[in-house]
Structure formats: structure tokens, C-alpha cells
Design goal:
The chain is mainly α and 129 residues long. It contains 5 helices and no strands. The two termini are 24 Å apart. The chain binds zinc ion. Zinc ion binds next to helix 4.
Length: 129
């Protein structure tokens, strides 16, 4: 085993902090936009169109960050459980190269390629052990 799990764990911790910070920044910019809207009623339509587009972009990136955060927190949880590096579906070790590239990976390559609805069942089973 050449994979340094401690290093991956600290990378995940850093990633989690970074994602939370990004979410905070997104929320702060939403608040800023709301404050701006209280301003004068002049030349609003063009601004509103731009704001709407920016708002949509923020929603998209917020969702992406949230999804990523869920994955990272799930991986950190697996560290606590001692199941980190094992596939959520089949329970086999995930290719270390894959973990190096994507520390929050929770599925092995073959399960990722063929998602099984049994994933949740395996997790439940895993919890009870
Ligand atoms: Zn698998």
C-alpha cells in the first residue's frame, strides 16, 4: 500500500474548507445583489436581465459546490468509519491512482461506470457492521 491516506484525508479537509468558503462567498454576493435592488428605479430592466443571468449562474455553481461538498464529507465520514478507499457499492478497494486524482471518490471504476440502485442498501448494510 503506497497510497498515503493521511495525505488524502488532509486534502479532503482542505477541499471541504475551500468549498464551504466558496458557498459563503456565493451567499455574500447574493446578499449584495439584494441590497443593490433596493436602489433607485432607474434603468432597471437591463440590470435585472444581467442580475437574473448571474443569479442563475450562481444557483448552478452553488449546486455544483454543494454536490461536491456532499461527496467530500461522505469521504471524510468514511475515514472515520475506516472504510475509506473501499467502494460504496461492491466494497472492493478503489484504485489508489483514482483516489490520488479524486480523493472524494466513493465508487470503484467499474461501479462508477455501471451505477447500481443497490448502492444505498450496501451503505445501510455497512453502517450496521
Ligand atoms: Zn465497486
Amino acid at each position: 500500500m503506497t497510497t498515503n491516506f493521511d495525505l488524502l484525508c488532509s486534502r479532503l479537509e482542505n477541499e471541504r474548507k475551500r468549498l464551504i468558503k466558496q458557498l459563503e462567498q456565493l451567499r455574500a454576493s447574493v446578499r449584495l445583489a439584494e441590497d443593490t435592488q433596493d436602489g433607485g428605479p432607474f434603468g432597471r430592466s437591463k440590470e435585472e436581465a444581467i442580475e437574473a443571468a448571474e443569479f442563475e449562474m450562481r444557483l448552478v455553481s452553488e449546486k455544483r459546490i454543494r454536490d461536491l461538498l456532499v461527496e467530500v464529507e461522505h469521504a471524510l465520514h468514511k475515514f472515520e468509519e475506516g472504510t475509506y478507499g473501499l467502494c460504496d457499492v461492491c466494497g472492493k478497494p478503489i484504485d489508489p491512482a483514482r483516489l490520488e486524482a479524486l480523493p472524494q471518490a466513493s465508487l470503484c471504476v467499474s461501479c462508477k461506470a455501471h451505477p447500481e440502485p443497490a448502492e444505498e442498501t450496501y451503505r445501510e448494510h455497512n453502517k450496521k457492521r
